[in-house]
Amino acid sequence: MKLSNLQKYILIQSFERKGKLFPKPELKKFYRSQKQQPKKKDISGIITKSVERLIDKELMIGYGIRTPHKWFIKEIKLTPKGKKTAKKIRGEQQALPLPR
Q: Which domain holds residue 40?
């Protein structure tokens, strides 16, 4: 399963909470360590799409508010499949970007 750096960060941060709900606004910390940051108005959209894709892959459960048109995810929690994936990601060694 292919995951982006943001999705890996989300899984690892949620895993470190040990079963507790993880508030979605805390995921903005990911972009503080990045050299190139997207515009501030785009950050929340990018995070929302990443979380929704993780939910679609059955790695997370989202808790929030539903309106007639849209879901607003406030907190997230890992599923057992997500915990297994997070353990695997934590154990992987990071690849160096060397030319081949």
A: 5-93
